[in-house]
């Protein structure tokens, strides 16, 4: 699995395996998982680029012909599809692939379930830091830099929880993208937890095999 120097530094929200497990236990609950999945599928339409849903619709077919890492870094040439279309579709595809596979991290081992190998395959195709940063850039494209800076300015000046509860009334101009901001925060926690927990699991397995 690729190492992720940025997400192992001070900027990482999920610091250790214990925190990763706690995050996964919360976000793998059916209601939270449904929220994450809906957000991932909404993202492709919020970008208002018809090429993105078209590419995502073909992604399963494309994965039979190309490695995921190739689709992310050096995709095939398709008429009318720009490099930036591939980049955006690839980021969303990774999230859509990881969400249904992540349950395997906390599930009892099952020799008949190949979800763990598929999960490792996706994690090994893109560093966590690159995936998180890429999703953040998509969010900025949708909401706009001015909106994001305005939101951050108000957030730093107030108590976070109370601010979010009061926001629709006190700052109605910031209500538009609140759900997207909340989703980006949750998906970052989810991804950091998945990468960290999976890496720790792989390391523990390697130690046991070498005993």
Summary, kept brief:
This protein has eleven helices and no strands. By secondary structure, the chain is mainly α.
Architecture overview:
The protein is globular, with a radius of gyration of 18 Å. The longest helix has 33 residues. The N terminus and C terminus are likely disordered. The protein has one domain. The protein starts with 16 loop residues before the first helix and ends with a helix. The protein is built from eleven helices and no strands. The protein is an all-alpha fold and 211 residues long. Helix 2 packs across helix 11 and helix 6 crosses helix 8. Helices cover 71% and strands 0% of the residues.
Order of helical and strand elements: HHHHHHHHHHH
How helix-rich are the residues, as a percent range?
over 70%
Number of domains: 1
Strand content: under 5%
SS field, number of helical segments: 11
List segments where confidence is low: pLDDT < 50 over at least 5 consecutive residues: 2-8, 205-211
- Radius of gyration equals 18 Å
Task: Report the major sheet.
Answer: none
Key terms:
mainly alpha; 71% helix; globular; 11 helices; single chain; disordered C terminus; 211 residues
Per-chain topology:
Blueprint (H helix, E strand, L loop, with lengths): L16 H11 L2 H17 L4 H7 L1 H7 L2 H6 L9 H19 L13 H9 L4 H16 L1 H13 L2 H11 L7 H33 L1
């Amino acid at each position: 699995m690729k190492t992720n120097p940025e997400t192992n530094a001070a900027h990482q929200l999920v610091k250790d395996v214990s925190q990763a497990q706690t995050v996964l236990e919360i976000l793998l609950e059916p209601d939270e998982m449904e929220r994450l999945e809906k957000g991932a599928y909404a993202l492709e339409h919020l970008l208002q680029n018809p090429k993105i849903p078209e590419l995502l619709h073909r992604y399963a077919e494309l994965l039979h012909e190309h490695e995921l890492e190739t689709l992310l870094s050096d995709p095939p040439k398709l008429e009318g599809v720009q490099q930036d279309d591939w980049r955006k579709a690839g980021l969303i595809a990774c999230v859509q692939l990881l969400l249904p596979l992540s349950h395997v991290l906390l599930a009892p081992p099952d020799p008949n379930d190949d979800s763990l190998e598929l999960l490792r395959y996706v994690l090994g195709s893109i560093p966590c830091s690159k995936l998180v940063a890429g999703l953040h850039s998509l969010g900025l494209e949708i909401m706009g830099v001015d909106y994001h800076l305005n939101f951050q300015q108000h957030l730093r000046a107030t108590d976070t929880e109370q601010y979010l509860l009061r926001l629709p009334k006190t700052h109605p101009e910031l209500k538009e993208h609140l759900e997207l901001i909340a989703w980006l925060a949750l998906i970052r926690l989810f991804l950091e937890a998945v990468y960290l927990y999976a890496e720790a699991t792989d390391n523990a397995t390697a130690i046991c095999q070498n005993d």
